[in-house]
Write a structure and sequence with these properties.
- The complex is a heterodimer of chains A (207) and B (221).
- By secondary structure, chain A is mainly α.
- Chain A has eight helices and no strands.
- In chain A, helix 6 packs antiparallel against helix 7.
- Chain B is globular, with a radius of gyration of 18 Å.
- The N terminus of chain B is likely disordered.
- The chains are: A mainly alpha (207), B mainly alpha (221).
- Chains A and B meet through helix 1, helix 5, helix 6 and helix 7 of A and helix 1, helix 4, helix 6 and helix 7 of B.
């Protein structure tokens, strides 16, 4: 499937670049994630609308924790040996989801809320193929969850942060589908899901 | 922009994986998708039907949403035209040809949806602009085509992300979210086929209208 080696210095560098670029990009977010982690500079607009937005952000945090844990297990070999392309996929998605967790964990207290703890998770015994198909399902659900939440958000700062994550989840979904060898963009309009629908899908993975 | 040399993405389809992916889609996702598609009624479809009124929306918020939708429409015209010409004229292998066809069709669907949405809000959709595509640069090789596609898709994602917070009407927000996710999927797909990282950053950037126009300017005649 791939002749790419994650131990290759070039690949390591690519992963590191992804992280470094994250920090730079997060700085560009301005009113978004990083301004918050840099010291809680939120606008009056964000604070005034914080209550309902906080519930949504905490729900997003739960999903990001779930995804982070899933890719962490994968990259550590819990789902068996992964070939190099799939290993890189797991490493990249792990670093992104962890960055989303960090951003949400910084944003929620800045808005006056308390971040939820990482949920206990459980995954069935997966091999490489099932890992990739489960990744497709999780990422697609993430896209639809953010897509469903966006119209409910009140603060423009929170909307900007959510959108900056939403499209990355969509990139992940297409990436997972690419790795699986299936059509990466299968519909012209991506459906949204509400909170209960997302929970129903995520439930089997929450212990 | 980070470029990652990524031979690993030229995935040789491993039949069992493809089969499982198809099963995952058919079994869990497809039926769920159809249900969701019905739920999706609040979005583009409902707006497009023209039956949805926006009694609570102020004139000003409607006008501002229409302006943003017209800007999105201009970009969708640009993308759909680019892929239509690329599909017809660029020397593409089977994999890239399929990409060009599928994305072209998605962008055309976005054009139609945006035109209907703007009309249902009482606005006038912008006409299709005149484009100035340099065939030597854009369509002379598969790699030139993919590089341009990558720039257009990444810009499209950032354009929607930049415009999103300013939207006021819920059905328009839903429509925008449903489209930007697909633009991001396109970006990821094109990048993968071009041999670069599908998801190069943990957070996608937002661009202002002026920033987007500066990037897109060379394509307008």
């Amino acid at each position: 499937m791939s002749d790419l080696d994650v131990r290759d210095p070039d690949v390591q560098e690519a992963i590191e670049q992804t992280r470094g670029a994250f920090l730079r990009k997060a700085a560009l977010l301005g009113g978004g994630a990083l301004a918050v982690s840099a010291g809680g500079i939120f606008t009056a607009d964000a604070l005034a609308h914080s209550k309902s937005d906080l519930d949504i952000l905490n729900f997003a945090l739960t999903l990001e924790y779930l995804e982070t844990d899933f890719y962490d297990r994968a990259r550590r070999g819990e789902f068996g040996n992964l070939n190099q392309g799939v290993q890189l996929f797991a490493e990249v998605l792990y670093s992104h989801e962890q960055a989303h967790v960090d951003a949400l964990n910084a944003m929620i207290p800045a808005l006056g809320g308390t971040p939820v703890s990482a949920p206990a998770t459980k995954f069935p015994s997966l091999n490489q193929r099932k890992f990739v198909t489960t990744a497709i399902a999780l990422e697609q659900t993430g896209v639809s969850a953010y897509g469903g939440a966006f119209p409910l958000l009140k603060s423009n700062d929170v909307k900007a942060a959510a959108l900056s994550i939403h499209s990355v989840e969509a990139r992940h979904a297409a990436y997972a589908r690419l790795v699986a060898g299936t059509l990466p963009a299968h519909v012209a309009f991506y459906p949204a899901l509400n909170k209960q629908q997302v929970l129903d899908i995520a439930k089997p993975f929450l212990a | 922009m980070n470029r990652i040399e990524y031979k690993g993405l030229e995935v040789e389809t491993n039949a069992p994986i493809e089969e499982l992916a198809a099963q995952a889609e058919d079994g869990t996702n497809r039926s769920a998708f159809l249900k969701r598609a019905a739920i999706f009624g609040g979005g583009v479809a409902a707006v497009a039907s023209g039956s949805m009124a926006f009694p609570a929306a102020s004139h000003a918020s409607k006008a501002s949403d229409i302006e943003i939708l017209n800007f999105a429409l201009t970009l969708e015209y640009l993308e759909s035209t680019f892929y239509a010409i690329g599909f017809d004229k660029a020397p593409l292998d089977a994999r890239s040809k399929r990409l060009a066809k599928v994305i072209r069709d998605h962008e055309l669907a976005h054009v139609k949806a945006l035109v209907s949405t703007i009309q249902s809000l009482g606005g006038n959709p912008v006409k299709k602009p005149k484009f100035n595509f340099n065939p030597d640069q854009l369509y002379s090789s598969q790699q030139a085509f993919l590089q341009t596609a990558m720039a257009l898709e990444d810009t499209g994602v950032s354009a929607y992300n930049g415009a999103g917070p300013a939207l006021t009407l819920v059905p328009v927000k839903k429509a925008a979210a449903s489209i930007v996710a697909v633009e991001a999927m396109h970006a990821s797909w094109v990048r993968g086929v071009a041999g670069t990282a599908p998801a190069p950053l943990a957070f996608d950037q937002a661009l202002t209208v002026d920033q987007v126009l500066a990037i897109a300017k060379p394509f307008f005649g």
